[in-house]
Amino acid sequence: MPADRATVLVGVSLAAVTVAAWVAFLAQAASLSSTAPDTMSAATDLVGASGFIGAWVVMMAAMMLPSAAPLVLLYRGAGADGRAANTVPLVAGYLFVWAVFGAGVYGAQQALAAVVNSSPALGDGRPYAVAGILAMAGVYQFTPLKQACLRQCRSPLDFLMHRWRGPGAFEALRLGAEHGAYCVGCCWGLMTVLVIAGAMSLVWVVLIALIVFVEKLMPFGERSAQLTGAGLGLVAVLVAAHPELSMLLRGGMGI
User: What is the pLDDT of residue 30?
Assistant: First the structure.
């Protein structure tokens, strides 16, 4: 297949996967909302963890693949070595890292739910925990680590030139995993806000997906990251001053 046609095919396939992930996320949003309280209060088990991680990967595919698309297309367009078939392990490696992160999120949710359930009085401090998470995520937006990871995500050509190790499927898998690790380093604060403050509601999913897209792909992305940090800090102050506002941030599934 000619290189240009193969690149178009990869782009169309990536768009189709993203759309399918959004459709799947919207379809499962209602059931996740209705089952989350039981899941969060139950003991950790393999079925519950697998279901959560599966739903998490679908959500990450919907939210993150658009911002990862430049790397995937550059990989395919790199020449004969950038085989179209190897974009599959490239994307798989990227999503695998997010799956690992999702497993950590599930474990943290279960642990935090157990702590809260063991002492009902701790539930009164939940709004202040939300404020703390918002403040932490806001501060992280200004840190050198955030900026270093964001630069890697914003410069897929530079990343590809420095990380390329060969044309094989395993090398593509590893390349995708490395890019996913930088992406987690860039976005973990926002994802913490999504889970803790926003309770993975549809509004927060769409909002953070847009924030990530702007940060990684728009010319003013680095400045927008700092504006997002300032906004999160402001919301943290408001929630700390008026704890009832924390409930307005929540919806869907949460802890």
Answer: 62
